[in-house]
Amino acid sequence: MDELLELLDEAWDDESGFLGKLRSGEFDLDAGEAYVALLSRIPPIGETVEAKLVQLIWFAPMFIEWQMERATKSEDELKQLTRIATQVHEAVSDVLGIP
Fold it and tell me: Is the pTM of this model over 0.90?
């Protein structure tokens, strides 16, 4: 779990992380695909939850949506980032569950 938390934390890095790059206005398709794959490695949340895990993933879907226009430079990039955003939302929903 420590490795997974470290990788999720790195996704927010301003220079190399998918979410950090979006914050800077840069959409990286490969990093987005890798982030979706990383989210799929998270086991379903049971009775005990590591708070850091939730902190690192719950906000990501909204954050990506907020960065869409700013981080994409073409209609094709917007379409690709929209697909990534949908996959991130689905992956986080799979982990946390839907009420």
Answer: no
